[in-house]
Amino acid sequence: MPAAQSEPVLRFIRNLASREQAAGLPDQQLLGLFLTKRDEGSFAALVRRHGPMVLRVCLEVLHNEHDAEDAFQATFLVLSLKAGSVKKQQSVGSWLYGVAHHVATSLKRSLARRRSRESQVINKTVADPLAAITIREAQQILHQELACLPEKYRAPLLLCHWEGLSRDEAAQRLGWTVRTVKNRLEQARQQLRARLSRRGLALSGALVAALFSEAMASAAVPCVLLDSIVKSATAVAAGHKAASVASAKVATLAEGVMKAIYVAKPVMWP
What we know:
This protein is mostly helical. The chain is 76% helix and 0% strand. Helix 7 (151-162) crosses helix 9 (178-198). The longest helix is centred in the middle third of the chain and has 26 residues, at 92-117. The N and C termini lie far apart (53 Å).
């Protein structure tokens, strides 16, 4: 095979090998590689690992695919800018959850204000049965309360009940013992049930698990979306303005979250 023809094949093989190697690295190392080398492969590995969870949160808050994808991109743009300040780098998923929930909620409020200003007429005919509306409302409350849990409780819940990891795998990811994961999972469930009960959702452990199962339904990140955010995030981390590599809507969302982090420093961003 001529050299000119073999080059794309060799490049593909190298990229594939790099992707497989990155997939096995812990979050902390992937963040380190991105911070020190602006390594696209490392950031892509983080997006593949946690992107489905982030996209699912955005979808469940916004109930609109395009808006959810904008919130998704803004979340990872914020990660590219704040990667160095993530305190518990073994648990990037929990940090991303907090940012994603904040971004999606902010966008939802903004859209509601715009609809109100434009005096749009809302169709009162609802296709979903009452049970579906109840589940949707319960999921909204679940996200709100989950975002308020302390990091040490939220992280194992997300890993085990959302990303589908076993306790052993979660312990390895977090750098904890399996016993610690087991104890904190139980404490997390108890705290979450108590929080939900105060909101009027007296759910058993089985029903809480069912809500998580609904959330775990696949929300695979489309390849085009993954490639786009990796390139945008790498460019922003290298010093480019967000508005020059992302849509105005995504850039505005990311900038809004950055301001919130600096001003409020809420508990959802450890």
